[in-house]
Each structure stands twice: as C-alpha cells, then as structure tokens.
Amino acid sequence: MSDGNDDLWRNFPKTAIEFDRTFATEGDCVAYWMQARWGSEPACARCGGTRVWVERNGRLFECAACGHQTSLTSGTVLEGTRKPFKLWFRAVFEISSRRNGISAKELQRILGFGSYETAWTWLHKIRGSLVRPKREPLGEGVEIDEAFVGGKRLGKSMVLVATETDGRVRLAHALTNDEETLKAFADANLAADAHVTSDGHAGYNATSLGERTHEPIVQTNAERAVSDTLQRAHWSVSMLKRWLIGTHAGAVKARHLQAYLDEFAFRWNRRKTKGVGRISARTIAMLVSHPARTMRAIVDGARPYPLFMPAA
Ligand SMILES: [Zn+2]
Predict the structure, then answer these.
(1) Whole-number Å distance between alpha carbons of 104 and 29
(2) pTM score over 0.85
(3) Alpha helices for the chain (secondary structure H)
(4) What is the block-wise mean pLDDT of the chain (312 residues), using blocks of 10 residues?
(5) C-alpha closest to that of 241 among 114, 100, 129
(6) Which of 101, 238, 260, 303 could form a disulfide with 307 if both were Cys (CB 3.0 to 4.6 A apart)?
(7) Stretch (H or E) spanning 198
(8) Reduced to 3 DSSP states, what percent helix, strand and coil does the chain have, rounded to the nearest 5?
(9) Gyration radius from the chain CA atoms
(10) Beta strand 52-55 pairing with 60-63
C-alpha cells in the first residue's frame, strides 16, 4: 500500500486545534474515510458499482445495481465498531502526534471511556495494523543481535534486532536464538545481499544467514566502550527498553510484546518523517487496508516469533 492520495496526508491536521476544525463532525470523518478507502465514492463490495443508497447515517450503503449491502468498515480494522469515526480518528491522532505514543490509561482518559479494556483494545487494533505485509527487507550493512527485555509482567523476553545503516529497525520476540530461529528472522527481514555484522554467537553462520556476507566481531567491554561494532543495534534496544518503561510503565505482557515491538519499529522507522499529519494519515491508511482481528486474537496475543513465522 502506498501513502495513497497525496492530499490526504498533506492536509491531515497537525495540531489538536487543526484536528478539531478539520474533523468537526462525524460526516467530516466519514468523508475522509471514504476517500482513504475508495479514493472518492464508495464502491459495492460485490459488483464494484458506485451508484449506492446510503443508510444508517452513512455507515451502510446498498448497491443500486445489485442490492448488496456494504458497510464503511467491513473488511477493515474497524469492522464491527459502533463507536463514531470521530473517536477513532482522535485515537489515531493522539497515538501519532505523540513522539512516544500513548498508554491505554492515558487514551482512556482522553476519549472519556468508562473502561480501561476498551482503550487497551483500541490501541492494540491500531498497533496491529502498523506492519505492512510486504515490507522492504533491510539492505546493505545490517547489524544483527539479540537482547533481553524485562519487566514485572514481561518476565525476561528475548528480542531479535536488526538495524540498517540508514537506520530502519526490525524486532522480533523470539523463544531462542538458535540457527533455525535466526534463519527465519534473517529470511523475513534481511535482503539476500545484505552484509551482516554480528557478535561471536555461533548461531550466526552460513546456515542461518545463507549467502549474505557475514562479519562476526568479538569485542571486549573495553573495546566496545571505545568503538561498538553493534552500536545501532544496541542503541535501538536501549531506546526500546526506555520506551517500554517510560510510555507503558511496565504494563506489557510477554504474549503482547510483539505488538509493542511493531509499534516501536513503526515509530523508529519514521522518526525522521516530518509531520504528524503524515503519520496519522498513514495510520488511517493501514486501518483501511487491514482486516479486523478478533477480540480473542488480540487478547491472546501473537505467539513468540518462531511459532508464527510466515511460510513465505
Ligand atoms: Zn453491487
């Protein structure tokens, strides 16, 4: 999915005042949503017809040609929601406009929800949409490493990290760092011609890294203090730890860790993106283009990395 219609992100509000002006009514949000989803007018999900009758305050429409009913949210992350788009847009704005994101507790306060669980679920729905299915693999010089993140509810969880010279990061919650896991991680995230720097861990080898050129470098602490060969990887992990403690105050459970890693990577990879508007618009584009996950799937959380590795 591209950034979509240029105007959509260029015109997206950048401040709370602009937000209130641009999305003053539910209709403003619906119009934006339709633009993001269909480019202009809604189209019938069955026959593609664009002559439609609008029902239920514009949230449902019936195709004039075939009678099929399509809802504005069907097939998207917001499928089944009864809450106004305006609240969802506000949530996206709050999440996107804050440098470090937002906790469920804070979102609950801002949206005036009675329940913490609702705010928590919304955050997870949005978070779960942040990863594009076909992401460009990391190329050229890549540092790869593993680290542990911990916390009261998190226990001690292993995270695989890969960072690129120009700065993108990929993170995966893993059970182990054996060859097989590292191979799955490398194949999912690193270009076939990447040049890989790692520490001396034996799992980084021709089996896990394949044809990629590989430079294992063993450093003493003293050497690392002078010139750390895995500086980017170490830096991103220390920022990750700070974020988990700072924004989320240790509330993250191990079974939800991957979703937080995805959000962190999304923020990290866009840290140079100018403008809140662009990130908000991109987030809504993600909500439009992803199917909903069930409540059950969200609460149960994604399994640790090796177990849900995509086959492709
Ligand atoms: Zn139709």
Answers:
(1) 23
(2) no
(3) 6-10, 16-22, 26-38, 85-97, 104-111, 116-127, 179-189, 206-209, 221-226, 231-246, 257-269, 276-289, 295-300
(4) 55 85 92 87 86 80 91 88 92 87 93 93 84 81 94 86 89 90 92 94 94 93 90 94 87 86 88 77 87 69 42 31
(5) 100
(6) 303
(7) strand 195-198
(8) 45, 15, 40
(9) 21
(10) antiparallel
Separation between Cα atoms, residue 298 and residue 292, nearest integer Å: 10
Q: How far is CA 46 from each of CA 57, 58, 221, rounded to the nearest angstrom? A: 21, 18, 62
CA of 298 to the centre of ligand 1 (A): 32
Burial class (CB in 10 A: 0-12, 13-18, 19+), 20: exposed
State the distance from the centre of ligand 1 to the C-alpha of 68, rounded, in angstroms: 5
Measured at the CA of 73, the angle between CA 83 and CA 81, to 5 degrees, comes to: 25
- What pLDDT sits at residue 99? 81
Taking the centre of ligand 1 as the mean of its atom positions, its distance from the CA of residue 283, in whole angstroms, is: 29
pLDDT value for 23: 93
Give the pLDDT of residue 170.
94
Ligand 1 centre distance from Cα of residue 77 (Å):
22
Residue 69 CA, ligand 1 centroid: distance in Å: 8
